[in-house]
Amino acid sequence: MIKTLKNIRKLYNAKLLFVTNDNNLHNTIQNEFDEYFKELTLVSSSKEAVERIDENSFDMIIIDTDVEAKNFEEACSEITTAAPSLPKIIISDSDKNDDIVTAINNSAYTFITKPLKSIDIKLAVIMCLNQTKRGDKIEFQHGIYFDEYRDQFFRPGGILIDFTRLEKGFMKLLISKKGEIIDYDTIKNVVWKGKNMSIYTMRNIVNKIRQKTYYEIIKNHSNKGYIIDEIQK
After folding, report:
1. Phi/psi of residue 206, each to 5°?
2. Residue of 82, 72, 69, 133 lying closest to 103 (CA atoms)
3. C-alpha to C-alpha distance for 9 and 15, rounded to whole angstroms
4. How far are the Cα atoms of 79, 142, 174, 176, 180 from residue 230, in angstroms, in the given order?
5. Could you tell me if 40 and 29 are in contact, meaning their C-beta atoms sit under 8 angstroms apart?
6. Chain mean position to CA 85
7. pLDDT level of residue 40 (50, 70, 90 thresholds)
8. How many CB atoms lie within 10 A of CB 139?
9. pLDDT for 68-117, tens place per residue?
10. Are the C-beta atoms of 158 and 85 separated by less than 8 Å?
11. How many Cβ atoms are within 10 Å of 39's Cβ, its own excluded?
12. DSSP 98-162
């Protein structure tokens, strides 16, 4: 797909997690970058980073080699385990070979050395968001989200939800009609392509989706149909 200015992912609709124990860098990022992102979260340790990843659906993470209470390799490994597909940028006081190797082993997008210029970070984030194909997300409760670009559903940390074709089609239909109650006939025609389908089969699909996400993600309106849970802003 050829990118144009209209469909390039911008900073202002991205959620960024920044991990650093460098107080000067922390203050710089907080003062200069907060207004650029939809959400900017700063933490000082890998433990805090993992906790935030479990609670939120970030678009990417920037990890400083200066992290609290752990060496960089352990911190990076811990974060990667929690969010294996979350794009990463690594920043460092130096270009030590060990840190570069750790960054590569953890599939970092790029490695930037200090002192940092604001424009360097902004450009690195924009390039990472777009070249790692992170599209705009439709978010639900508990960190569940649908990535429109990749056409997949994920849990926090970029963990893929293994929906079947019917389950995924059901969810996408409800999302496309968010705020509306979708009647059974419409679901049958769109998801099952008009093939035979009983109300019990449909209920079974709904129950499986709820088990893989959370119960309220699909709401039933008796004798009318189904509606998707409120999408998070």
Report:
1. -60, -45
2. 72
3. 12
4. 30, 12, 11, 13, 11
5. yes
6. 9
7. confident
8. 16
9. 766 889 889 888 888 877 889 999 988 889 999 999 998 898 999 988 88
10. yes
11. 14
12. HHHHHHHHTT-SEEEESSPPHHHHHHHHHHHHHHTT---EEE-GGG-EEETTTTEEEETTTEEP-
What's the pLDDT tens digit per position in 110-157? 999 988 887 888 888 888 877 765 556 788 999 899 987 677 899 887
Q: CA 150, CA 228: separation in Å to the nearest integer?
A: 20
Which 3 state secondary structure label does DSSP give 4?
A: coil
Tokens of 87: 């794009």
Question: What's the confidence (pLDDT) of residue 69?
Answer: 62
Q: How many CA atoms lie within 13 A of 86 on its CB side?
A: 33
Q: What share of the chain is helix, strand, coil (3-state, %, to 5)?
A: 45, 20, 35
Length of the chain: 233
Around Cβ 42, how many Cβ atoms within 10 Å?
Answer: 19
> What 3-state DSSP class applies to 178?
coil
In Å, what is the CA distance from 80 to each residue of 54, 229, 230? 12, 30, 30
**Token pair belonging to 228:** 């998707």
